[in-house]
Amino acid sequence: MAIASQTVSDICAEAKAASRELALLDAEVKNKAINAIADALEARTAEILAANARDLEAGRAANIGDALMDRLLLDEARLAGIARDTRKVAELEDPVGRLLDEFKMYNGLDVRKIAVPIGVIAVVYEARPNVTVDAAALCLKSGNAIVLRGSSTAAHSNAVLAQIAREAIAQAGVPDAAISIVTGGERDELEQLATQEGMVDLIIPRGGEGLKNALKAVATVPVIYAAAGNCHVYVDAAADLEKAIAILMNSKTQRPGVCNAAETLLVHTDVAADFLPRALKELANAGVELRGDERTRALAGAEAGEIAVATEDDWATEYHDMIIAVKVIDSVDEAIDHINRFGTHHSDAIVTDSNTAAHKFTGEVDSACVYVNASTRFTDGAEFGLGAEIGNSTQKLHARGPIALRELCSYKYVVEGDGQVRG
Amino acid sequence: MAIASQTVSDICAEAKAASRELALLDAEVKNKAINAIADALEARTAEILAANARDLEAGRAANIGDALMDRLLLDEARLAGIARDTRKVAELEDPVGRLLDEFKMYNGLDVRKIAVPIGVIAVVYEARPNVTVDAAALCLKSGNAIVLRGSSTAAHSNAVLAQIAREAIAQAGVPDAAISIVTGGERDELEQLATQEGMVDLIIPRGGEGLKNALKAVATVPVIYAAAGNCHVYVDAAADLEKAIAILMNSKTQRPGVCNAAETLLVHTDVAADFLPRALKELANAGVELRGDERTRALAGAEAGEIAVATEDDWATEYHDMIIAVKVIDSVDEAIDHINRFGTHHSDAIVTDSNTAAHKFTGEVDSACVYVNASTRFTDGAEFGLGAEIGNSTQKLHARGPIALRELCSYKYVVEGDGQVRG
């Protein structure tokens, strides 16, 4: 944990030095350290909850609202969950040292392309203190040093969690500078972190648009923005409407506050009269607020209640809430254009029994994950079988979709010869 | 080609629209268009040389110096070379649509991870007009639209090359907005290009530190910095000194102006007295200016001539010239520390017959390409068998080392089901 006199740059320099050792650690040593973190979280629960109580008290005094208070809250069950998730990271395959490619050059040189850690990863996040541990475990497993920067709302919780993790890994023989935290108290820290060229190899912000824009304005080190999700369900002319209802309801309502939840429903005009009255009714019954274009509003039955007029803003909005925008469109091409124009290139689904439509949609929708006859909610490292994830990328460079252990690695080429020179 | 009234943002929007079509093109169509560019370069040689003559004349008037004049020069032989290289790009494997991974989720969902183009790539480059064609061919082959921004020095040459390429691909059925050029006349263009979020997916600067720093200060879209090379040859205690001489001379002198040429020689103290007098003499005979630490200077024979004192600046400098810095060190660890501290993480070589030393060096030197008993000069897309390259990355994200066709791709996950929803 940062002590008061340490600057961001000191912390990052220590992390960089530690990262050189981490890159060489055996899987066994890293796993032992990760499990030691889990053990320590359980052994020191009282201490963690006391720190969390201070954050909660401050949050209550500052009236931060129920949703944020809930995200901030730790209790025994949640801590046990964090410990369990941490142990799961220990069980995952070590991504470091994987042979990604191997070939012989024309002159006999042996080339191996080998996965290596990225180095120092800064993770900047908002209220949820579990991120402190999740992100630290994933970075440690992938041989990276982590510099954490949480929000001031969770400062006490994050500080004690990071300190406990540091002590645990040090006892397991891993340099404690593998896990560092800056206090999260000052705005300037973000800029300092984002400009530590040569020290910080990557910054991953986990938070809202404000955080992303703040970073974009200042960052000179590479950033992976993870990830707004304005996701779509498109019900095609050739859709099985039973499946369409199930996929729509799951994509929208199963967990509306996350990035892979659907925000807009597009319906082909050929099935709109059959599909929309029932779909809108089910959405309304589930408590979803409806916003529709003219054709949608005309087709809605009385049971769907009043439907507000959807504007361009609605097409572009990630509600993160029980609200959906609905539009009737005339072709799969129009659906694709709408999604590419208004979406955030995260997760989009087509419901169709037409191979032609499915092929066109998956080929032309420019998103990290494109679904045919399945819910958008599957975009997730754990669902994909990649283990835990540190976020979801909507960028096209390095990692697109779930950022899991493999995506926390870079590679190097190791070239071995017996004296070859270039002619 | 940009017409006078088009803004950078107009050009990028057209490129974005074209990129959606490009992503869907068959290899055949792309290859036909690439070969059409090569044909047009040959057919319109006179026109190109006339434009180039105007740039050369302006360069002469502005006294830009012999090296720059040579980089600017086109003649029939060079143009034929560019056409030949362009046709080679057509012969390379299409990187788009490659199946990178495939798995079934626990619930039966089929997941395919498929290589897709990045979208719109802006390439910002300095004097050499051949980059206009090379970069355009590589981007077209990988399904990306390119926005070129050359230097004003080569404005006439670049403009006519880009225009010829546009006309050629349009005749081959590819949207001409797949290849665009901004004039390169104004400083502000760089900032505009670098902030076209949602339009430009990647910027690749090919040029010196000034260009890179200018971009770092303003870029909000992702950048791959390609690539300063402060490369090292380390002659280990267990080196075969014959091989060491050959590797050193090739790494330093075969083409000193490029990024994979060596800039610093490190010699283990155990072999310094045997190796250095001969090595320094050969370097001096080849016309290489020598800068050494105290131990190096003490060991140099009279035949090496006067050796200047190497400073910290020398260790950190990419000379791009017939100059070398030389240091005697005490261990492979010291060599690794020196390289990680002063190097640019590009290409570094150890000469040794010790497996232990080789293993340590390749494991701990934090560079894109690490060589055992081979010249640093092999870091090159063509040498690696990857086909042409658009640059060499010393970043750790997305692409490290040669940026060839595969590195000009992103990927998407296509997930197919029969109604799966998340529980």
What does this structure look like?
The structure is a homodimer of 423-residue chains. With 423 residues, chain A is of the alpha/beta class. Chain A has 2 domains: 8-226 and 403-415, 3-Layer(aba) Sandwich (Aldehyde Dehydrogenase, Chain A, domain 1), CATH 3.40.605; 231-378, 3-Layer(aba) Sandwich (Aldehyde Dehydrogenase, Chain A, domain 2). Chain A has 15 helices and 16 strands. In chain A, strands 10-9-11-8-7-12-13 form a 7-stranded parallel sheet, with helices on both faces. In chain A, strands 5-4-3-6 form a 4-stranded parallel sheet, sandwiched between helices. A 3-stranded antiparallel sheet of chain A has the order 1-2-16, with no helix packed on it. Chains A and B meet through α10, α15, β13 and β16 of A and α10, α15, β13 and β16 of B. β13 (369-374) of chain A pairs parallel with β16 of chain B, so a sheet runs across the interface.
Which key features would you list for this structure?
Aldehyde Dehydrogenase, Chain A, domain 1, Aldehyde Dehydrogenase, Chain A, domain 2, alpha/beta, 423 residues, homodimer, 43% helix
- Major β-sheet strand ordering of chain A: 10-9-11-8-7-12-13
Task: Provide the gyration radius of chain A in Å.
Answer: 24 Å
Instruction: Name the poorly predicted regions of chain A.
Output: none
Judging from the principal axes of the Cα atoms, what is the shape of chain A? globular
As for the CATH topology of the largest domain in chain A, it is Aldehyde Dehydrogenase, Chain A, domain 1
The multimeric state of the shown protein is homodimer
CATH architecture of the largest domain in chain A: 3-Layer(aba) Sandwich
